[in-house]
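seq as requested:
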Amino acid sequence: MDDASSKMKILFLGEPSSPNTMSWVEGMRDLGCEVVLASVRSDGSDGAWPIGPVSFPPRIRALLGVGDVKHLIRDIAPDVMIAYRVTSYGYIAAKSGFHPLVLAAQNEGIVFLRKPSWWRREILERFARYAVERADMLHAWSPNIRDGLLAFGADEGKILTMHRGIDISGVPEKPRGGRKFDAGRPVFVSTRSLYPEYRLDLLLKAFRRVLDHIPGARLKIAGDGPERAELERLRSDLALDEAVEFPGRLPADALHTLLRESDIYVSIIATEGMSSSLIEAVAHGLLPVVWDMPASKTLVENGVNGILVVDDHPDDIAGAMARASAEFAEFESGLAENAARVKSEFDRLKNIGVFLEKYKELRRDVK
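struct tokens:
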């Protein structure tokens, strides 16, 4: 990367509380970029610039925040603006009229609703099309996200299908740090946020069934979110207090330690883009037990380097988890290949370096 790229000034619209946002921002800063982060969920105390009136809810702030984005553009004169998530920050960024504009989608559906709502879907789909049509470049972390963007009218020639990668500096040379697997004491782990869409209640119910057959099994659910209190109550109701831990959201070093000390990664979210959590887990040599969906299949071939779950009944999830423990040795060559693939294809510094070269081209074209 040339000197001009490394000194690029970037205005980034996204959530400062999101590990995905901060991993991307930190990666660009590590490569010498000046990155200004702005958010509708910030009051300025977290280092991000507030967008919209801070006393208002985030959705209202988003609708009222275009003027603040325009002021930021005038004040900092960015070379590129990046908006992370199409229907929120993508729409605000597109309304600002700034170019070059880069959008990134979080989910393959592009429009994501936690609860069904016809009128909200109609509005968000309009927002998505408006933003996608005005973007100069679109990030797709995996082919399923690319397909979602195309469905909203994206120009395929403007889509870069490549994950931003993970920080591989804490990944051990040997999977799981060389720790031997103990079939009588398997350690299952989830590193997803504690939100309803991750269906961690189902995971706890499934683990109750696993524990009935493998008394030495343990489950660690690392992450935080609004479901924590309810999940902890469910843990007690299922008599899992001794077998299930909630260590919370962990800093990078502690997360690497947790993964090195774990054996089997479990995630049963039914739709998403491309999970950094899954990439981190397979980088450490964990055996993934994940939902059968396009995002999972980017990394996991069922029965070869992981297990795909196709039914959301706790008995079926428990069966997949028990199989992972019973047949762990049969997957070890696939797990080693997983770890090697992450180092080859998902190195954050390498991939973000590619991004910056693309941004440099955009800046040149606009000027």
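Residues 348-366 form the longest helix (19 residues).
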